[in-house]
Amino acid sequence: MQVDKRKIEEAVRMILEAVGENPDREGLLDTPARVGRMYEEIFSGLHEDPKKHFATIFSEDHEELVLVKDIPFFSTCEHHLVPFFGKVHVGYIPQGGRVTGLSKLARAVEAVVKRPQLQERITSTVADSIVETLEPHGVIVVVEAEHMCMTMRGVKKPGSKTITSAVRGIFTNDDAARAEALSLIQMK
Ligand SMILES: Nc1nc2c(ncn2[C@@H]2O[C@H](COP(=O)(O)OP(=O)(O)OP(=O)(O)O)[C@@H](O)[C@H]2O)c(=O)[nH]1
Ligand SMILES: [Zn+2]
């Protein structure tokens, strides 16, 4: 099922009433519909398989690291439905000449982050999508993010960063390969 915007509109109206607002005042009249359109956009990844982006495979004899770093992202914390955002770094070592388009790595990230999410799940889903499609020697994904649920509310720790990583294949046991990828990710 695609996004039911009418249902979101009803729910937003109810939330506005519940917090003590008047959903019929001028400034709020279009808000339920706007929020419906916004949720359709920021949760569009629920209807998209990130793996579909790896259908584009070039045959290229390169069995060394390919790293796309600093891919910016915005996601939505599934616990509080507030944003968390930061950067994703995706590296893989192709095998058997299976190389994908660089933009496809960023497209797969977009499909994964546009859902109610956990940072850990973003990290592992991106890694596993690459493993299952390109069957590379190895994959490394690092995500660094700031969670609004930790800054604007609750424990209120603005500036704190959460870093998660997922390594697959050769990166799990080859210290030199992992060190190379991590140093390139950290390089400014
Ligand atoms: N592991 C993980 N935790 C997250 C993520 N996003 C938010 N959280 C945490 O989810 C937890 C939810 O905890 P609860 O105790 O159920 O909710 P809460 O009472 O609102 O928690 P506080 O934020 O501590 O006020 C919090 O500790 C959040 O920091 C994430 O991506 N990964
Ligand atoms: Zn949260």
Automatic annotation (TrEMBL):
Top-rank lineage group of the source organism: Bacteria
Key words of the record: GTP-binding, Hydrolase, Metal-binding, Nucleotide-binding, One-carbon metabolism, Zinc
Pfam families, alphabetized: GTP_cyclohydroI (PF01227)
Catalytic activity annotation: GTP + H2O = 7,8-dihydroneopterin 3'-triphosphate + formate + H(+)
GO molecular function terms attached to this record: GTP binding; GTP cyclohydrolase I activity; zinc ion binding
Cellular component annotations (GO), alphabetically ordered: cytoplasm
Pathway in which this enzyme or protein is active: Cofactor biosynthesis; 7,8-dihydroneopterin triphosphate biosynthesis; 7,8-dihydroneopterin triphosphate from GTP: step 1/1
E.C. no: 3.5.4.16
Domain (GTP cyclohydrolase I): residue spans on this chain: 8-185
Main EC class the enzyme belongs to: hydrolase
A biological process term (GO) from this entry: tetrahydrofolate biosynthetic process
Record bears the keyword Chloroplast: no
Residues annotated to bind Zn(2+): 77, 80, 149
Matching InterPro entries: GTP-CH-I_C/QueF (IPR043133), GTP-CH-I_N (IPR043134), GTP_CycHdrlase_I (IPR001474), GTP_CycHdrlase_I_CS (IPR018234), GTP_CycHdrlase_I_dom (IPR020602)
Family indicated by similarity: Belongs to the GTP cyclohydrolase I family.
HAMAP family, alphabetized: FolE
Subunit structure of this chain's protein: Homopolymer.
Protein's recorded name: GTP cyclohydrolase 1
Gene this chain is encoded by: folE
